[in-house]
Design brief:
The chain is 27% helix and 29% strand. The protein has 258 residues and is of the alpha/beta class. The two termini are 21 Å apart. The chain binds zinc ion.
Length: 258
Amino acid sequence: MKLLCPVCRETLEREGRAARCVHGHSFDYAKSGYLNLYLSHKTMHGDDADMVKARTSFLSSGAYAFLREELKQIFTEYGSTSLVDLGCGEGYYTSYMPQSDKAAFDLARKALMHAAKHDPDTLYCVSSIFHTPLPDACTDSVLTCFAPVASDEIERILQPGGIFVLVTPGPDHLYEFKEILYDTPYRNPMKDIDTTLRLVDDRMIKSTFTADQSLLRDLFTMTPYVWHTPQENKKRLDSLETLTVTAEFRIRIYRSGK
Ligand SMILES: [Zn+2]
């Protein structure tokens, strides 16, 4: 997939360990292989090292493997040949997708380091998902999995007839886990997104997994619960040997009508 210079929007060409445009703007590939196209020197958003480690360890248990399978099947069904993953994290889903041409974006450097090391076939870039270094209509599919929806950007980069696949937590996602952590657990609300793309499919998939203490700890560290849980409730979690938890995902598929 062609990338554009984030400064002047000319095409970037790879020269050794850097990507350069005709105007001499130059960006370095990290040792692990991702490309840093983020212009700001401000503190980066994205996940810290502990969170990345916990998520990598959790995902390797296979608890969410059924989601990965479902996504792969969807892209195969739709005959998708290129993929832009917006908010790719450690590349757990990206790396498994069937397209031959893949680019993936995130601001979490530590996550991209892991992703690029394990998946040299995808182009991983540090970049805002709201302003990607991509030309208009450059891909036939876009994936957003547990990340904010960059509607305007998705509409811009999708080819006519291309698809956008959105994954969000289903109502019962991790409900048993929340029952332990919160005195009044809630079901996840379902929200519509603001887009001109046409919704063509809306499915819910569900499975359960049984987590031991180490997996529960990973799950706790990788989610926002870590910030909102009273100490006593955290103790309740520590006292469990295992917990069977529901994983539920809503998958929406939109088509570009341009
Ligand atoms: Zn440039």
